[in-house]
Amino acid sequence: MFYDPTIVGSWPALAARLDGDAILVRWAATEPAFAGLSSAHDLLAVWEEDGADDRRDAVLAALLRLAAVDGGRDDDALLLTLHLFSGLAHTMARQLADLNPDILAVVVGELTCQIRRYPWRRRPRAIAANLRAETRRAVLADLRLSSRYHPDRVEVLTATGDIGRIAAANACEEGEDLDVVDLLQWAVRSGVDAGDVALLIATECSRDRQHRRADQNVAAAHGITTRTLYRRRNRTLTALRGVAPQYLAAVA
């Protein structure tokens, strides 16, 4: 539960309202998943019970139907769902903390939108996993600026935009530029594949000697083809360019 009332309101107040107004009993009239649950304590017991996955999934599905815009539009169901997903929200906020100083509010706001518009008719299964994935995807899309069709409109870290080459080249040197290393570490924490970053660095370090033969050697050392090497290298460079504006904002 969120025990900070500034996030989505007071949990004790919501629990008291659920109990005092017999809201769960009222919900049970249309949602059988709430049968036998007369209080917030009863509901939490089901939610936290080991081995009660089926019952928990049924309760969550019922809450989504009640909270969704094309369902019951029930605000209490929305608030209850948000509180039940407080652990997910805190975990995601920790994982994405570098992207925004108020990341928990961003995550909770997006989770609220996902609950309201959840396609419960088309996706009745794996609801928790779907909410987690869609919330994370939307937060990243909002905070990590990119433009597939107009890359010229997106801020880049260097005049050439080739931050991967500069970063990897610096990482090969003794007395490496700490800002560059920090950028690469920050990029990995923000979701850029760590293996791809390592592969990029290995490729750029090798290119200081012989270009194509060095690429072939790196590919062989990683057990991949040269074509795969180039594909992953381009993917990593694109990802690094995408996180550069957020990195600059975070360290400014």
Describe the SSE topology.
Layout: H1 5-8, H2 11-20, H3 23-28, H4 40-48, H5 53-67, H6 75-84, H7 86-95, H8 103-116, H9 127-143, H10 163-172, H11 178-189, H12 194-206, H13 211-221, H14 226-251
Written account of the structure:
The protein is mostly helical. The protein folds into two domains: 11-144, no CATH class; 178-251, no CATH class. The protein is built from 14 helices and no strands. α5 (53-67) packs across α6, α7 packs across α8 and α8 (103-116) crosses α9 (127-143). The longest helix has 26 residues, at 226-251. The relative contact order is 0.08. Residues 147-171 and 173-178 have low confidence and may be disordered.
Task: Provide a short characterization of the protein structure.
This protein has 252 residues and is mainly alpha-helical. Helix content is 66%, strand content 0%. It has two domains: 11-144, no CATH class; 178-251, no CATH class.
Keywords:
252 residues; mainly alpha; 2 domains; 66% helix
Total number of domains: 2
* CA(first)-CA(last) distance: 34 Å
State the total count of DSSP E strands.
Answer: 0
The tally of helices reads 14
Give me the strand/helix succession.
HHHHHHHHHHHHHH
Q: What amount of the residues lies in strands? A: under 5%
| Percent helix range | 55-70%
Coarse shape: elongated
